[in-house]
Structures are given as structure tokens and as C-alpha cells.
Amino acid sequence: MLNRLNLLTRHFARPYFTRPSAPTLSSPFLAGPFAMTSAAHAKPIHTAACLIIGDEVLGGKTIDTNSPFLAKFCFSLGIQLKRVEVIPDDEEDIIEAIRRMSSRYDFVVTSGGIGPTHDDITYSSIAKAFNLKLQLHEAAFERMKRLSKPHPMQPNFDWETPSPGLNAKLRMVELPFDPKVPAEHQAVFVADDMWVPVAVVNGNVHILPGVPRLFERLLENLKPSLVPRLTHLEGKGTHRFMISTPLPESAVAPFLTELAAKVEPRGVKVGSYPRWGKKRNTVTLVGADKEFLESLVQEVEAGVQGKLVSKEDELDAPEDEDRVYSQ
């Protein structure tokens, strides 16, 4: 027991996230998504950015599925995802990117680099980016001990015995801490059966793991704390209408240019997307006002000689996939 105390003294002696006196539903570390207080909802969310961190993505070992998931998540809430970047596990790159994104966008999400190994440097790099220190999140450590399952290759591991494995686990619960910000605004548990907290730095940087199933679940469970900050949308969300056209892009370009200028003041974006090797291309209308978008459909169908579809390939006929049509 004495050895264990020697190992953990440097952690538990620090004043970071202290253990609540009693685990209640109002506890910022044990309650879930409602732990975020109203102060954290003060700034509305209009824009978002995503930072994917990992050598394995840039090296082709892993395919990034987290940024597409975030894109759909933001679209469903009416948040404009403005930027997605993939960078290596490099401290300088992380610091530069996260400072820039935090200064420009309302909701910033990072993915990856918060595991137990030497190249998991996201927490420490983001802490340096904002001149913060890493300190133990005691509630996360307690939840880790309670909710983690023993790995079959570590049959003798226990939380009372000092070991390299224990040190590695502690790396995952040392989070950036700003002494000027209430602790409950800096980390939140969003699911009762998950020990991983969503660390929040500089008010808008949300640090998530790179494992897709964890990333997706944490993000979905974070939604209740984000929705109150979407006041600019009045609950409308974002809608997309797709019109399939047999015309090439060059033929519909004049009409779409005029249409885009007309509807831009109403917050509608007009898109044109060629489908190489297919006979039909796609025109899109995207915006928050569903009724206004619906009112445009007939005009667009006539202007591009197309038809409203629910899927891009809805009107496709069997054809030679290798044939390329002029756009």
C-alpha cells in the first residue's frame, strides 16, 4: 500500500478535479450531459471545425470515419462545419492547428491521440497551446477503475500495485486544467457506463478519442448540452433537397448561378455535383427554412430539366460504369 501511495501522491495531492462529497445527479462529474451548467451555454454555436490527429490516418493504416460522422452530426443540428484537417502526432502541428481553430470557430472537435502510449500527446499538446498544465481528473480515474474490464493479456493487473501499465492508464486521465475556469466547465461525462470524459479547453475545444465507436457515442451524448446553444436556428436544423438532372454541369451553370444569387440572402446554398460515369448529375438546395426550400423545387426541376429525388442514384439506369460523359 505504501508503494502505491508513493506512486500516486503526486497526482492526488494536486487541486485539480476533487472527488465530490457524494455522487448525486447534480455532480458535474457523475451526472452525464446535464452536468454542463448554463454558463457553458452562453455562446451560441454557428460554426464548427474538426481536427483529426494521428500518424496512422496520414500513413493510410486507418481510414478516418470520424470527420464524416461529425459532418452529418453538425448538418443535422444546422451547425456549419467549416473545416476538417488531418495532422500527425506532432506537438507543434497540434498547437498551431488548435489555436487557429479555437480562435475562428464556435465548436471545435479533436479526434485521436489520447491513449496510453508515447505517441498519444493530444492532451499535453493542447494544454501547451493554451499555457495550461496537466492534472489528474480524479473522478475519471475512479470511473476508469470501476468501469474498465481487465485485459486478457494483463491477468495480474490491479489498481493497488505500481506498474508501467498503471502509469500508462494514468496518462489517459491527466487533462488540461485552467484554474480560472470552473472545473465543471472543463470536463463532462455524457454516459453513465463510460469513464472517458469529454475534456473542454478554452471554452470551445472538445477532445474526443479516435476510436470510432467511442467518438460517435460521446458526440451523440454530448448533443443535449449543445442544443441550447443553437438559438440562431430556432430548432429548424438543416435540410437538403436533391434534384437529379440529365444535363451536364456546363448546361445548368447559368441557371444555377442566377438562382444562387437570388436565394443566398435567404440562407440557401445551391450545389452542383457531377457524377462521373453516370448519365445524371445532382443539384442540391441546402438551408434551414424547409418551406422555402420546398417552394424552390418546382423552379429548379424546370431549370435543370430534372426531378426531385431522395437518393442520387434513384433514377439511374443500368449502364457502363467506365463511360465518362462530358460535363
Automatic annotation (TrEMBL):
Domain MoaB/Mog: 49-229
Matches recorded under SMART domains: MoCF_biosynth
InterPro entries given in the database record: FLAD1_M, MoaB/Mog-like_dom_sf, MoaB/Mog_dom
Organism, scientific name: Penicillium frequentans
GO biological process terms, semicolon-separated: flavin-containing compound metabolic process
PANTHER family: MOLYBDOPTERIN BINDING DOMAIN PROTEIN (AFU_ORTHOLOGUE AFUA_5G11210)
Gene3D superfamilies per the UniProt record, alphabetical: MoaB/Mog-like domain
Domain of life: Eukaryota
SUPFAM superfamilies: Molybdenum cofactor biosynthesis proteins
Entry GO MF terms: FAD diphosphatase activity
CDD domains: cinA
Protein known as: MoaB/Mog domain-containing protein
